[in-house]
Every structure is written in structure tokens, then in C-alpha cells.
Amino acid sequence: MKHIGIDVGGTNTDAVFVQDNQVLGAVKSPTTSDVTTGVRRALAALIQACPQAAAPEAVMIGTTHFTNAVVQRRDLEPAAALRVCLPAAASLLPFCDWPEDLAQKVNGGTYLVQGGHEFDGRELMPLDERAVRDAARAIRASGVSTVAISGVFSPLIGDAELRAGEILKQEHPDCRITYSHQLGRIGLLGRENVALLNATLIDLAHKTTDAFVQALADSGIDAPLFLTQNDGTVTLAENARDFPVHSFASGPTNSMRGAVFLAKINDAVVCDVGGTTADVGCVQNGFPRQANNMVEVGGVRTAFRMPDLLSIGVGGGTLVNPDTLQIGPVSVGHRLLQEALVFG
């Protein structure tokens, strides 16, 4: 098997060529603001160093772009929250436990409607389709184009969320919808939070994935493109476009799997220091150990599939404020060569 692996970090883009489990070539180049140029440069350098890399059987790309976007509060789109829950689950509104600066940036409105199910699958109340339709019209009028739909106990029965989505599409055909039951666990707030994060990143995910596809085409590479996920697996790029949260923490996950692969062991504690964050996690039987409780991403508590990591907003490109002595979480990212006081 002949594979190209690419890691697009906030600071550097690394590319390797692997054949029959042997790394035959590896290059590093600074990440560029448009992503495509950095990947194209890395591929060109890799093919020059290792000509057989020009005809891989597959290309795998891992990126920290989506995690960094949340941590650094950039490239995020406002998202509306449509919760199917009344008369229950109205005491804590969507975005209620988010950091204030992030909530102000992405809160595209909150809408609670009647419906949902009990924990045993019984219908809590019939879905108020008229209220959903009114909410859809209000969302369209507000100019918001991404929506996260969550429902009470929807991981058990997602019918109410799906029907609400159908109505939303009828009234607002251009909107992009994230359904919480496709992402999270039973707990409503944590599941709703991850759906909202996903919704705020949809536009960035589409642009980033399209940029990766274009970079491969520009490099003359005709091979399936996969994106790495945070459980240590990969998925086709077209599947990853609508679920960017599955790439949260995939950078450290890639490093963890790569470390045990190169060390020829199955169990280890791995520390991955990148340009924006430093992450520590455990590998068991070759795969990252999964967290069994709430995991914070950029200060937002989420309840979905995530590796069990300790993440600190300190990396190679971290900014230090000399006046307040505050360290991070902002990083100079791909501008490291230009803005670092000390380099090399």
C-alpha cells in the first residue's frame, strides 16, 4: 500500500509518504493562510524528495483547523439553536454555559418548540409544526444560514429532530442543518453544544475540504482523499464536510497513533506539542483512550466522542503578553517565521 499522509497544523504543514508501513519520505513547510498553497507546496516538496509519492493509492489529511477556530474564536459562523423540548427543558437555554465572548460571536438566536420524547421512547408532546415553521421564517429573516436542531432524548428517537429539519428546509432552503442525535449522547446541553459547534464550523469545513481537494488536483494526484477523525480512524472527505467536530482533537490523535506505530508498541502516554496547543493522552491497544465524561472544547462543555486528553493553550507559536504576562491561547500560527522573536 502506498499512502500520503498530511498534517495541516496552525503553524506547519507536514507530508509523508508511506509504503508497506515504511516512511520513505517526509517534508515540512509553513502553513499558509489559504491552506491550499501550503498543502500544494508540501506535496511538491514530497514528490521531489520521493518521486514515487506522485502516484499514491490514497491521501490522508489531518488538520487542527477546526479546533483552533473554536479556541481562537475565528472563522466561525453564527448558528441558530432550535430545541424541540416544550413543555420540558426550558430552564437552561441554548448557549447558557458558553464563554461569553464565544456566545456573543456565534449566537444566531434560540428557539424552543413543543415536542420530543421521554427516556423510554414515549412521545413527550406532539411536535408543534406551526411553531417550527414560525422559527424557520424568523431564522431566515435574521440572515442566519446554519441551524442546530436538538430534541429531548433524541439519540433514542430522532424523529422529532428530522421532522423539524424537513419543515426548516421548506421555509429556509439554503440553510445547513446539524442534528444533535447524529453527534452526541443523551445529555441535552452537552449534545446541543456539540451540535451548535458543528453548525458554526460547517462553512469553514466546506471551504477547507474544497481547498484540500483542489490542492491534490493542482498537484496532479488522482487518489481518494480521507480526513482523520478523533477516534483514530479516517473517513472520506465528502463525509467529513458536514461533521467537522469529528476532527476535534484529531491532530493529537494522529500524533498518538503515529508515536506508538513508530515505537512499535500498543500502550503509551503521548505528549503532542503543536503550534497552538500541547496535548497529553493515553493510547491503549494502538488507539486513543476515549473520554467517558464531558469534554471542553474552547470552554464549551460537550458530550460526544472525544479522546481523553489534557489540552493546554500553549504551543510553539503561542503569544506572550509582556505587560500582563498572559500566555496564550492565541498563536501566531502560520506567521511563526515572520513574527517569532526567536526561531531555529
Protein model, in words:
32% of the residues lie in helices and 28% in strands. With 344 residues, it is an alpha/beta fold. The chain has a domain at 76-201: 3-Layer(aba) Sandwich (Rossmann fold), CATH 3.40.50. A six-stranded mixed beta sheet has the order 3-2-1-4-9-10, with helices on both faces. A hairpin with a 2-residue loop joins strand 2 and strand 3 (22-30). Helix 1 packs across helix 6 (188-218), helix 2 crosses helix 6 (188-218) and helix 4 (129-142) packs across helix 5. It is globular and about 60 Å long. The chain starts with a strand and ends in a 5-residue tail after the last helix. The relative contact order is 0.14. The mean pLDDT is 90.
Rough outline: globular
Side-by-side strand order of the widest sheet:
3-2-1-4-9-10
CATH architecture of the domain at 76-201: 3-Layer(aba) Sandwich
Mean pLDDT: 90
Total strand segments: 18
Intertermini distance: 35 Å
* Low-confidence sequence ranges: none
Topology:
Layout: E1 2-8, E2 12-19, E3 22-30, H1 36-49, E4 58-63, H2 65-72, E5 79-86, H3 100-106, E6 107-114, H4 129-142, E7 146-151, H5 159-171, E8 176-179, H6 188-218, E9 225-228, E10 234-236, H7 237-240, H8 250-263, E11 268-273, E12 278-284, E13 287-288, E14 295-297, E15 300-302, E16 309-312, E17 318-320, E18 327-331, H9 336-339
Parallel strand pairs: 1-4, 4-9, 5-6, 5-7, 7-8
Antiparallel strand pairs: 1-2, 2-3, 9-10, 11-12, 12-13, 12-16, 14-15, 17-18
Helix pairs in contact: 1-6, 2-6, 4-5
